[in-house]
Every structure is written in C-alpha cells, then in structure tokens.
Amino acid sequence: MQKSSKEQLRSILEPRSVAVIGASSKSGKIGHEILKNIVEGGYAGPIYPVNPHEEFILALKSFKSIMDVPDDVDACIITVPPHLVAQVLDECGKKKVGGAVIISAGFSEIGNFDLERLIVEIASKNELRIVGPNCAGIINTQNKLYATMESRIGPGSIAFMTQSGALGGAALAWARQERIGISKFISYGNRCDIDEADILEYLVEDDQTKVIAAYIEGLRNGRRFLDSARDASKKKPVVAIKSGASSEGSRAALSHTGSLSGSDRVYDGAFLQTGIIRAEEIDDLFDMSKALSCQPASRGKRIAVLTNSGGPSVMMTDALVKLNLEVPEPSTQMKDALTFLPEICSRKNPIDLTAEATPEQYGKVLETIAGSNEYDIAISMFVPPAFVKSEETGRAVAEVASDMSKPIVACWMSGDLVTEAVQILEGRHVPNFPTPRRTAKAVWALVERGTYLSKSRSDLS
Amino acid sequence: MQKSSKEQLRSILEPRSVAVIGASSKSGKIGHEILKNIVEGGYAGPIYPVNPHEEFILALKSFKSIMDVPDDVDACIITVPPHLVAQVLDECGKKKVGGAVIISAGFSEIGNFDLERLIVEIASKNELRIVGPNCAGIINTQNKLYATMESRIGPGSIAFMTQSGALGGAALAWARQERIGISKFISYGNRCDIDEADILEYLVEDDQTKVIAAYIEGLRNGRRFLDSARDASKKKPVVAIKSGASSEGSRAALSHTGSLSGSDRVYDGAFLQTGIIRAEEIDDLFDMSKALSCQPASRGKRIAVLTNSGGPSVMMTDALVKLNLEVPEPSTQMKDALTFLPEICSRKNPIDLTAEATPEQYGKVLETIAGSNEYDIAISMFVPPAFVKSEETGRAVAEVASDMSKPIVACWMSGDLVTEAVQILEGRHVPNFPTPRRTAKAVWALVERGTYLSKSRSDLS
User: Fold this and answer.
1) What pLDDT does B1 receive?
2) What's the ipTM?
3) Partners of B161 in the beta sheet?
C-alpha cells in the first residue's frame, strides 16, 4: 500500500539512511557540496554516495547505482542532470527507497512540462513520493541532516518551508546571522508531487516545530492548502510571505515559476480566515516566527513600553500605533503602584526610567505590569551608553519574564554593545529585535495570534 | 562682536584644543568616559581635563578651573552636575572659549526651566554659544574628535544630528555594525541655544558631509528650521525621522522632551516642500543616507532589476511597486540587445540570469541597462549557493557601476556568505542592502531626490 505523504516526508526528513545520487568528488559540483554538507553536518546514519564513475567520494564507498546499495535506503537526494532523473527514479522505485528529494533543475520552471509529467508518472507507478524538483534540499537540525547546499543553520523551533530555493538559501543565511535556529527546512521548488499542504500536515505533527514559516509565490492546490493551513493554525502559528503581491510582482513570479500567483486580496482574505499571519519580508517572517516560538499569544492589544530613554520609546509608540496597537496610559491606581520610582521617571506609558534606570527598577516595573490587568504585552527597551554594562538589567528582565503569564519582548537596540545582554534575554525566551519597527511587527503577530485563537474558540462554543 | 553660530559650531567641531570640565579618573563616570574617548579616539590637539580635586587624569595634567588653563581653549565639554553648570559657563565666558557642549542633564527635560533659562542668559552675556544641555556630545571623524560617551564610529560622508542622545547612541551602534561611517555627529538635546537650523547651516557647508541625516522629535523654531532645510536641500540631501507621528507618540515625546511635536501631516507637507526626505526608522534613515551619499539622484522611477534567482526578485518587484516605483518590461529592441543571454534566462524585468549566471553576463546586462534610455536605476541582486564565491560577480558589477551615469544599488542578501563581495561593491560606491524592502526604500530616496532637484530647477527657470 502506498505510504501517506506524511510517512514519506518522515522517511525523507528522519531517515535511517541517506543516499546522494549524482554525488561527486569534484568541489563546486552540487552533488559534491550536498554530500559534504551531510557528512560535515554530523548526520549519524549510513550515507551512500551514488556515482557510476567513482569508487570513493569524501572517504565513503560509492555505488554505481542505488540498486547496488546493500541495505535499505530511506532518503534519496537526487542531483543528476534532468534527463537522467527519470531513470534514477525508476531505480529508486525498484529499490523501494523511502522518498526522494530532486535538487536537479530543468523541468516545468523552464517549460519542460513533459519531463516533469514523466517523473511524476514514474514516481507514482513506483509508489514513491518526491520533494522538488528544482529545489535547494532539506534540513533537519534534530538529526543533523543537512541535505542541501545552503548554510548549516543551528537548531531552533521554527520550521521554514520555501517555494524558492534561492530565497530559502538567502533567508537561512540571514537567519543564521541573526542567531535564529530552525527545526526543519524544506525547499519544495516545483512541488510536482509533495506540495504545500503535504508539508504543512507533516510539520504540524513535528514535535520540534513550534511555528511554521513559509515563503509562497503561488499555490498548486489552493483549496487543499487552505484546509491544511486551517487545521495547522489551530495547533501552531503559521506565518507566511505570499510574494507576487503587485501585478508586476505577479508577472515576475509567472516568468519565474510558471505558476500564476493569484490576486493579492484573495490571499489576504484566505490567510485571515485560516489564521495564517502574513509577513511582507524575510525579517518580518523570522521576527514574527521568533516571537511566536517563545512567547504566548496575547489576550489583547494594550501594550506597555518600559524604557530608559525617551527617543527610542517615542519611535516605538509610533510604530505600535501604526499597526493599530494601543499604548494606553496607566490608571491612577497603577501610577500609584509605581511611586517607588524616583521623581525623574515618567510613570506614563512609555514608562521612562531615564538613563539612571537600575536593574531593580526594571524588575519591579515589569512585575507591576505583569500583575495588572491593564496591559496585555510588555516591551522592554534599553539603550546603554557605551560604557554601561547591560547584562544585569538583562538578567533582571529575564527573571521576571520567566514568571510572566503575558508576552514580553525586548528592543535592545545598540548592536554589539548589548550582544551579551541579548544572549541572556533570548536564553530565557525573551526575543529581542534591533529596531522599534521590527519589535512592533513581532508584537503585532502575538496579538494577531491571540485574536485568531480566541475567535476560533468562540466559534467552537 | 559675537561669532555666528556657524563659527561657534566650527570652534566646537573643529577645535584647536578641547577641555573636558568635570573630567574624572573614575571609570564609569561620564566625565571619565568622554575624556577617555577623546584620548583613545586619537584627537591630535591639546586636551585639558578640568577637575578641582585631581592632578592628573588619564596621564594628562588636570586644571582646577578652565581659567587656569594656560592656553586658548576652543571646545569645552561640560559634564558637571546641573547646579554647577551656570558657574562653569561664567568661567568659560571669562576665558573666552570657542564654544560649549553641555552633556549634563537636569534642565528643561525634567521641568527645570529656570535653570535652563539661567544658563542661556549667562552664555548670551558672555557671547558664548551652547550645544545641549542633556545631550550625548559630538563627533568629528575627520579630526578624530570623539567628544561623546557613544561608540567610536568610523569616517564616512553622512552627518547625523539627533535630538535624542539615547536614540543617537543606539543609531551609531547600529550604523557601526552595518559598517556605515559618518562625517559628523551632533547630539543637540534640549537645544537651549544652538538649534536644528544652526546645525543644518553648519553642516551644509561642511566639505566632509554629503548627506545630512536627522532625528527630530519636535522643533524649537519651525519656520527657521524649514528655511534652513530648504537652503540645505538645494545643496545636499537631507533625510529625517520625525518621530511622535501618532498622537500617542506625540504624547510620549511631550513627556520626554517637554516639546510639542506637532501634527504629523503638517510635517509631511513641510518636509515635501523643503525637499527633506522622510525616514520612518533608523534603518531607513541610514539606508537612504547611504544610497544618497554615494549614488547620483535618479532622473526617473523606472527600475531595472537584475538577478540570478527568481524568488528574491519577485519580492523586490513587490517592494518597489508598493513605493510607487515602476518595474517596466524592456522594449523589443532592448530584449534583442540581450539575445547574447542563454535561452534559460528571462529577458523580462526582473532580468533573471538564473543560478548559472556568470560575472560577464552581469557586466554585459548592466552595460545594456546603462546605455538604454528605458531605465533610470539598476538594482543588482545576487544570491549565491553556499559554495559559490561571489567576489568575481561583485567585481564585474562594480566595474560597470563606476562608469554608469545613472544610479545602481545592490541587494546581495546572503549575510556572511557575501561579506567580501559586498565590501568590493561598497568600496566602489555601490551601496548594498540586505533585504528587498530596505533596497527599495533606498532606491525610492534616490528617486525622491531626483524629483525634488528637477522640480526646483524648473521653479528657477
């Protein structure tokens, strides 16, 4: 009986063994770089290079054909030229491999629809499922499988699925530089077989994945995708870029993937209905995913801003209000609860502790916000003069944050002056963002998620 | 006769000697950190610490009072407690110093209007002009004067003036991390004397400054500022954040600086009239300034996008169109001129050279764009797979760019995979931005600048 797409994706992403068909000992060749990434990445299972012309590649015994591999093979990574893919797939079928990832390009994306149809037929006849073709491969950081030519990013709880391999690669490099980790990476390219909906269904059941981030240009089967997204959103946040928003961008997407990207408004409506949180840019996508992966959804949109400097908090207020979030003043009662603060501090919102802010003040004000029913989210901002150590304040914020039942995020803006403090914060699950706009967008995602969850709860009751 | 504010600012920023009043040998004190920054920054003129209780500070002879310094003093950096500032200013007046920067806080920003009025009176009586109080100091990278407690950023051609010292510090740290340099930094705080207009008038005549970037919360003298900005814009681009845009942000600004920030729409209109290019965020501010500092203004808004990967170029198209820029298809004639490209490439716009792009193709396509009258700006995008060296393509782009009479910017997105290529590009004045949105915003600034210049030329004729 044919395995479900979920089982097949499990074979591909959690394989007991991996083969690279088209492996090469020649540096710069895709079949070399992917094999090297798998070996150097630390994947612990058996690795089988397949290449009829080589005996050993990267000190591993190479096989003339997948048929010659003496053991069972779960994941097959295919990097041979496009005209050889059909034959390779046929052999994979006979070998009864678990699933195939076709990196090779040269199919529907350049008009070779017949060739793509052919490989789908062969795969189907052999009860084999395919990721790709024309993709950048897959990553599972849990078993250290880096079956891709892209950056070896570290582990985290965000799964990233992308239609564009190049965008995926650029995004991974960007995320790695921002010290963001991932659980899974699935570049699905032309998705001639396994598609967006299959991947969503797999990721929603993946224990390592807390948030699903997606880059989408166009959908193969919109209806099925939306059904899967609706189910997924109930369990985990789904954040997605849908590019090709402008008609010009849509034309560009058409010439790029051959797929019509659809009216932008239609997507907006569909995303809203299914609970997908829409991102506009790579930074958005990962910032929102980061916030959602380590902070609870928000019960409302009343934001408290705690700062040690006026200017940045003015910008934060602007950025929040622009996203329809609220920055209300505290009640008289709450202001009274803040009378322990020195005269110089502002007890309005933003609550400004001034340059003389102490770690204790940060901690106590956050406790007051945590205990009040006036605010739904706290933002901790901090700008140190060049010679002030910010670690202690970071620790004070992290301490309160770990007991807080409402979301807290940080906007510590000063680049390498706060690197260590940010590590302390993020080590305790307080996500940090380097600018007010990016922070506000992450906060907005927590509010959107909360709104969706409370709406779907009330729909159920 | 009283010196003009421009002459006084010259005394402060290009001094023949500097005194730090309130200098201290105690690490962590502002008077210590600023002195240390001046010494370690490499300022070559005489440096005079002033502190009645110390004999030597950082191996420099210390003086009991500014009156005891045997030589003339140009710039006086004042870091004493607020209640001592009036007396210090009186002594500075008697000493006939060139100008004063008052770092000390505790004036109008916390309601001490009387104390601020007093220091203005004393300064005026002594024909002395003041930057500050409540500011983060000044930097001139040309003479290596870092009279501030903020990051020692490297030289460049962007001048950065900021009302908020903390925002200024955070922005400098951010800019340094992005490898952006500056010409001057002027944190003007409560601007009780020298104000935004004075600073603009100084910077517009500063040879090191090609672009003026400003962070503004509210203006002291709006009319005069706008007149100065109008004059400045004719000679150099002025890019500004005006924060407190929302009514909540405006309330936050009021409680922070005590100044009313004014209606946002009024600012929008005024900025448009005077040619100020409005930024929303720190990244915007520096991205736009960077583009304007090294590329010519654009003659129009028709953008050519050159890429080696579809996905990122679809996002770029979306981002450009969102800012009302155009991404038109090439004419048949121009498509014909691109027939040297392999079949697999897309000769529409974005022009997609695919993953097999060569440096030569990048160069030749850019030459075609440069020579056509169909496009006003070229964007070069590039996403390397992890193992591809991008330096050669960087060199090819930089080569054509140096002969181009229209603007070119780069969007090489892959973080540390393209660090060296980006250095090659930026070394040849092709500014790079890490995401499509940020690139599009920088391109928009070049178009805005061009629109303003052609409008003001036609107003003249």
Assistant:
1) 46
2) 0.87
3) B186, B214
Is-contact A286 A211, C-beta < 8 A? Answer: no
Go through A399-417 and write b for each residue having 16 or more CB atoms within 10 A of its CB, e for each that does not. bbbeebebbbbbbbbbbeb
For the cut 80, the answer to whether the pLDDT of residue B389 exceeds it is no
**Interface touch A352/B256, C-beta < 8 Å:** yes
- Could you tell me the pLDDT band of residue A460, with boundaries at 50, 70 and 90? low
Q: Do B310 and A33 touch (CB under 8 A)?
A: no
Which pLDDT score, from 0 to 100, does residue B254 have? 61
Which pLDDT band, with edges at 50, 70 and 90, does B243 fall under?
A: confident
A460: amino acid identity, one letter: L
Whether residue A282 is predicted with pLDDT greater than 50 in this model: the reply is yes
Q: What is the DSSP letter of A63?
A: B
Does any CB of chain B come closer than 8 Å to the CB of residue A5?
Answer: no
Among the listed ranges A85-94, A167-176, A373-382, B432-441, which one has the minimum average pLDDT value? A167-176
- Cβ atoms B400, B276 nearer than 8 A: no
Q: How far is CA A247 from the centre of its chain?
A: 26
Average pLDDT of span A84-108:
95
Token readout for B323 is 């800012």
Residue A315 has pLDDT above 90, yes or no: yes
At A457, list the tokens.
């709860």
Beta bridge pairs of residue A351 = A306
**Cα Rg, chain A, nearest whole Å:** 25
Pairing of strands B238-242, B211-216: parallel
* Residue from B79, B248, B381 to probe the interface with A (highest A Cβ count within 10 Å): B248
B312 contacts A248? CB cut-off 8 A: no
Question: B71 to chain A, minimum CA–CA distance in Å?
Answer: 31
Name the residue among B177, B217, B352 with its Cβ closest to that of A311. Answer: B217
- CB-nearest to A416 from B105, B173, B315 is B173
Residues composing chain B: 461
Distance of CA A9 to the CA centre of its chain: 18
Residue A406 pLDDT level (bands cut at 50, 70, 90): very high
List of residues 6+ apart from A234 with CB closer than 8 A: A275, A456
- Cα angle value A304/A306/A307 (rounded, 5°): 145
Region of A354 (left: φ > 0; alpha: ψ -120 to 50; beta: rest) is left
Contact A413 B252 (CB under 8 A): no
- Residue A253's pLDDT is 67
The band of B61, judged by pLDDT with boundaries at 50, 70 and 90, is very high
What's this model's pTM, rounded to 2 decimal places? 0.91
Substitution target in A248, A284, A301 with the highest count of B β-carbons within 10 Å is A248
Residue numbers in B near A344 (CB within 8 A)? 110
A190, A164 Cβ separation under 8 angstroms: no
- Give the B window 91-150 contacts with A, CB below 8 Å: 105, 109-110, 136, 149-150
**Residue B174 with chain A: CB contacts under 8 Å:** 413-415, 434-435
Put simply, the answer to whether A313 touches B252 (Cβ < 8 Å) is yes
Q: Please report the domains of chain A, with CATH numbers, ordered by start residue.
A: 1-134 (3.40.50.720), 137-294 (3.40.50.261), 297-457 (3.40.50.261)
